[in-house]
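Need residues for this backbone.
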């Protein structure tokens, strides 16, 4: 159901493991639309927040379950719009997020080291060309996307380096679920900043 023609155009979720918060930024094609954000852990509501569309909404995440390659925990989140303060009315979107922070730190010897949630992280993996014989650069099915991601973990790796392309959104979903860190993302920011 669409209220007054308003609908979600985008949802960006940013976890902060130092502040123990999630920041949700929505894009809705209308102004002053009230929103309710609900975060679920194992199907149970753990926190809620209200705010307005097109403005950052900060939600505390008490005692977060951190995402690691060994334990890739993902929270579920729903964002619903309303008129008149009644929830859930109007549009609703659902998504997920992991509480994780990737950063670089300097050793005593002056070398940069990769950190995941403040702990040293050794990334091991391979270059993924994302090529399928029956679809070339387009995966023939979602199962084919998932198979490639799960194969990386089966061989004992925890990272994939993507080469010269951006994969479909479903590929990243499978990567989040199967414990992978994406090296191409790390390479983009590693020379420009010390933390993400």
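Answer:
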């Amino acid at each position: 159901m669409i209220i007054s023609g308003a609908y979600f155009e985008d949802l960006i979720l940013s976890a902060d493991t130092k502040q123990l918060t999630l920041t949700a930024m929505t894009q809705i094609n209308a102004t002053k639309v009230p929103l309710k954000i609900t975060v679920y852990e194992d199907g149970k509501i753990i926190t809620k927040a209200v705010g307005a569309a097109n403005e950052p909404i900060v939600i505390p995440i008490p005692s977060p379950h951190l995402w690691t390659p060994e334990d890739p925990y993902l929270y579920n989140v729903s964002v619903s719009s309303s008129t008149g303060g009644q929830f859930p009315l109007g549009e609703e979107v659902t998504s997920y997020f992991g509480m994780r922070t990737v950063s670089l730190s300097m050793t005593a010897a002056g070398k940069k080291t990769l950190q995941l949630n403040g702990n040293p992280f050794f990334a091991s993996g391979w270059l993924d060309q994302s090529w399928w014989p029956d679809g070339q650069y387009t995966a023939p099915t979602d199962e084919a996307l998932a198979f490639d991601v799960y194969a990386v973990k089966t061989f004992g790796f925890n990272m994939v380096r993507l080469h010269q392309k951006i994969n479909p959104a479903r590929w990243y979903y499978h990567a989040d679920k199967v414990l992978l860190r994406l090296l191409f993302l790390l390479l983009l920011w590693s020379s420009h900043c010390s933390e993400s």
